[in-house]
Design a protein that fits this description.
By secondary structure, the protein is mainly α. The chain has one domain: Up-down Bundle (Growth Hormone, Chain: A), CATH 1.20.1250.20. It contains 18 helices and no strands.
Amino acid sequence: MMQPHFQGALRAGVRPRELLGWAMYDFANSGFTTVVITALFNAYFVAVVAGNAPWATLAWTAALSVSYALIVLSAPVIGAFADLRAAKKKLLAITTTGCVLFTGLLYFAQPETLWLAIVCVVAANFFYGTGENLIAAFLPEIAKDRALGRVSGWGWGIGYLGGLTTLGLCLLYVTWAEARGQSAAQFVPVTMLITAALFALASLPTFLLLRERAVPRVAAGDVPTAWSRLRQTLHHLRPFADLRRFLICSVFYQAGIQVVITLAAVYATQAMGFNTRQTLLLVFVVNIAAAVGAFVFGHVQDRIGHVRAIALILAGWIVTILLAWAAAGLSRDAALFWMAAALAGLCLGGAQSAGRALVGVLAPPSRLAEFYGFWGLAVKLASIAGPLSYGLTTWLTGGDHRRALLLTGVYFVIGLILLAGVNVARGRRAALRARHLAG
C-alpha cells in the first residue's frame, strides 16, 4: 500500500526494496553509535576502564578525536576512489567488517587493558565514520531531488529505531545482569558483543538489495589517481561557494551535536548523578524523539526549504543547551533535564537528516561519493573540535561539565549565523553546471 508513496520519491529504475536496503544500513550502524559512543561504553570507559581519573573524559574524547582525524585525512580520497572505481558498495563491506570486528574486541576492555580499549575505539569509530560517508553517497542516486529531505529522514528515522533495538536488547541484558549482582565490568563487555552481532546481521539487507549504479571511470583507479582527482576538485571548488559555506557551517553546529552524541551519558552521570539504568532510559527517550524528528523534519524540509528547516533546528539546539545547563544546577532538576533530552532528540534527528539531504542538493551529480567525503570531513572535524574542547574544559576547570556545556552552545550560535549566507538555488545551479568535472 505504501509502494506508490515510495515510488513518487524514488528515481526511475529504483525499486522500494532498494530504499529498504539503503535504510537498513542506518538501522544497522545506529546500534554502534547509540551503545558505544552515546549511551553505555563512553560512561563505562570514563568510570571503569579509566577509573574516573581526572584525565578520563579527556582520554575518551582524545581517542575519538584520533579516529576522526584519520577520517578527515582519508575521507575525500576514499570518496574519490569510490567514484573512480564505482566501489562504494565494496568499500562499505570492508568498513562494516572492520567496525563489527573492533566493536566485538571491546569485550576485553578492562582497567588493565586501557590501551587495547583505546585502539579498538579508534579503529571501530574510524570504520563506522567511513562507512557512514559511503552509505550517504547512495542517497542522491535513489531519491529524486525534490524528495531528498524526506528520503533522508526515512533513513535516519529507521536508523534511530535500529539504535533503540540494539539499546533495548542491551538494557534487557543489563537489567538481568544487575539483578544477579553483576558489576559494570562484567555486563558492559557483553553488550559490545550484542552490538557487534546486530550490526553484522542488520546490514545484510543492504548488501543484498542495494545496487551500485555508478560506472567505473578508469581501468585501474589506484590511490594516486584518486589523489589527482581530489586535487582537481579542490582547484575547482570556487563555483561551489554555497556548498563551501554550508560545510563550514556544518563544522560548527556539528561540533555541538557531536558533544551531545559523544558525552550525553557522561554528562548525565557526572553532572546529574544518573546511574546506568537511568542513563540507558535517557538515551531511549533521546532516540525515540530523534526518530520522530527525522521523519517529521524530512517532510518539513521539503516543504519550507533546507535553510529554514536547519535554522529552526539550530534554534532548538540552543534552547536545549540552556535547559540542560540549568537542570544541572544546585537543585539538579531532573524534570527539566528530561525535557532537554526530549528536545535534543527531536533536534538530533532533524539536523542529521537535513544536513545529509542538503549536501545531496549542492553536490555535483557526477561526484557524489567525493563530495559526501567532504561532508564527512566537515562532520569529523566537528567531531574532533566539539568533544575535545569539552574534554579540555572539564580537565582545566576541575570537572565543571556545566561550563563545558555552555561552550558547546556557542557552536550552535556560530552555525546559525553562517547558515544565513547559504543560497540553495544558487548552489544547485552551480552543482548542475559542474557536469564537465566528470571523468
